[in-house]
Amino acid sequence: MPELLQSFSDNAPTTGVMELYKVPENLFDKDKIHFSDNYMIVRKQVRINTACHGIARILSDSNRIKRRNNLVLDQGRELIADIMAGRLPADPITKFSIGTGGYIGTPDPNVNPPKPLGTDIQLNAEIFEKDIDSIEKPNRAANTYIGFLASDEQNGVLISEWALKTFSGLTFSRVTTKQVPKESGFVYVIRWTIQH
After folding, report:
1. Exposed end of the chain (fewer CB within 10 Å): N or C?
2. What are the DSSP E strand ranges found in 53-141?
3. 172 belongs to a structural domain
4. How many domains does the chain have?
5. How many CA atoms lie within 13 A of 103 on its CB side?
6. 136 inside domain
7. Cβ atoms of residues 35 and 41 within 8 Å
8. Residue range 122-149: average pLDDT?
9. Is the pLDDT of residue 48 over 90?
10. Residues 154, 27, 17, 78, CA torsion sign
């Protein structure tokens, strides 16, 4: 029985979804960006349907227009339990990171990369880390972390793995995707919701 208590279930109640948007640099203003239903509102009076008008969700079956479920890693679940029990001080999520190690071996654009494992402790090939820009609270049991890859950051990189990290550097959750090319002239908006 103790062995069962030490392993984590794939159906644990902490879940998450990462959304990635590609926004033309000339439309982007991080101080005036807001999400509402299927729309991303950029600047004061510009309301743009995310399915058209040059703003595209990048993640879908073809890795261009959708969202992707994440896996909260075992160490992330353990962190929540320890904080709630008072064994550790709070270690909030403050950063996101990207990498090129979503695939094992040569990436195949026709095949999705392996899904993250609960036992993962970091990205396989992390190349960049950045502070979260803002946090929204869509409901009582969720937080949405928003970060940006600027138009001049990581251009030409083929991104295939993503992570949320805590202040201390612990990788909390991870997503793998087909390769996403980072293009100049666009800001990539990472919107990642964790539901408890």
Report:
1. N
2. 56-57, 67-69, 71-72, 93-99, 126-131, 134-136
3. yes
4. 1
5. 14
6. yes
7. yes
8. 91
9. no
10. positive
**Is the per-residue pLDDT at 120 higher than 50?**
yes
Predicted pLDDT of residue 51? 47
In a domain, 159, yes or no: yes
Can you tell me the distance from the alpha carbon of 77 to that of 72, in angstroms, rounded to the nearest whole number? 7
Q: Which domain holds residue 163?
A: 67-195
Distances (CA, A) of 27 to 8, 9, 42, 160, 187: 43, 42, 7, 26, 9
192, pLDDT greater than 70: yes
For residue 44, tell me if it sits in a domain: no
**pTM summary value:** 0.79
What is the phi/psi pair of residue 190, to 5°?
-100, 120
| Model confidence band, residue 52 (pLDDT cutoffs 50, 70, 90) | very low
Q: In angstroms, rounded to a whole number, what is the distance separating the alpha carbons of residues 60 and 178?
A: 9
Beta-bridged to residue 181, according to DSSP, are 158
